[in-house]
Amino acid sequence: MIIDIKSTAKRAAVLAAASGALFAFAAPVMAQQQFVTIGTGGVTGVYYPAGGAICLNVNRTRADHGIRCSAESTGGSVFNLNSIREGELNIGVVQSDVQYNAVHGLDQFADVGPYDGLRALFSLHPEPFTVVARPDAGVVNFEDLEGKRVNIGNPGSGQRNTMELLMDEYGWTTDSFTLAAELPSREQAQSLCDNRFDAFVFTVGHPSGSISEPVATCDAVLVNVTGDIVDRLVDENDYYFSATIPAGMYNNDEDVTTFGVGATVVSSVDTPDDVVYEVVKAVFENFEDFKALHPAFTVLEPETMISMGNSAPLHPGAVRYYEEAGLM
Ligand code: GLU
């Protein structure tokens, strides 16, 4: 939430004056401060450190702009999008397919209709749709999940969104699995290793501790997601692309082939231009420091970040910075 401390401080000053307390002296010091909350994902994913990296850069220059930024762990993309729409979050990290669906009022957003007030800031790292299985589960490609115990992701997460689309395409329902678990990302590695299910799905940047943990703990393996259905989805939708998790990134001797989306950072048209300007500026002016904060950011390039993966128009505050910086 953006809370305008000016008015809150003024009210406190009035109350303090009325009660004779000394707190009124605090008011001038706190003038101008604004709070910005970024919705991310589970703490073991990449969204959470991504939000932390953005806020770290914003808070570093707080003395100049008065913005206090914090990253909040959430249920993921769909949760973030809905919370921005309801005014509960200012900024959120969301998958590019979820952003597209929200803009056009499709799938899980069909009931609420197109979200005209959604604005894009920039895109981040690629997120391959990643299937991780127990080594003894006999899962080699995505279709082998049928009849298995699968964690399909918590409602509100991006992976649940992508998984439901794939299930529709394959003609599956939750009954197609012996168990369809709905655990959030932070619990899935441990639960896989505890043999509570055979596989989980996670749309996430790489490398990620959420994948290296089950690989190291119980020899979990990465599974290909290939075939005609996936090829068609990639052909038909700009926000999907073929993706490879390179050999050796985890315990995989060979490349793992799948498809993926991009992580994107979005906000509402109601978030003030000045706030978005400062957030975007903080990331791009300290770009090398920002990139160094997570290994999944190694591939980031400023030009691509402002031109790829976004279906919503860029926020005017972001455009102001990009024009000033000569990026557009
Ligand atoms: N892509 C996931 C989601 O949209 C989150 C990935 C992460 O936490 O890094 O829910």
Compact description:
By secondary structure, the chain is of the alpha/beta class.
Helix and strand sequence: HHEHHEHEHEEHEHEHEHEEHHHH
Q: Uncertain spans, ≥5 residues at pLDDT below 50?
A: 1-31
Oligomer state equals single chain
The CATH class of the largest domain: Alpha Beta
Distance between the termini: 29 Å
In helices, the fraction of residues equals 25-40%
Looking at the structure, the CATH topology of the largest domain is D-Maltodextrin-Binding Protein, domain 2
Name the bound molecules.
Answer: glutamic acid
CATH architecture heading of the largest domain: 3-Layer(aba) Sandwich
Backbone shape: globular
Number of strands: 10
Biggest sheet details? 10 strands, mixed
Q: Output mean pLDDT.
A: 91
Strand content: 15-25%
Number of helices: 14
Q: Which structural category do the helix and sheet elements fall into?
A: alpha/beta
Describe what you observe in this structure.
This protein is an alpha/beta fold and 328 residues long. It contains 14 helices and ten strands. It folds into two domains: 5-125 and 262-324, Periplasmic binding protein-like II (D-Maltodextrin-Binding Protein, domain 2), CATH 3.40.190; 128-261, Periplasmic binding protein-like II (D-Maltodextrin-Binding Protein, domain 2, 3-Layer(aba) Sandwich), CATH 3.40.190.10. Strands 1, 2, 3, 4, 5, 6, 7, 8, 9 and 10 form a ten-stranded mixed β-sheet that branches. α8 packs parallel to α9. The longest helix has 15 residues, at 5-19. It starts with a helix and ends with a helix. Residues 41-42, 45-47, 76-77, 95, 127, 157-159, 185, 203-205 line the site of glutamic acid (GLU).
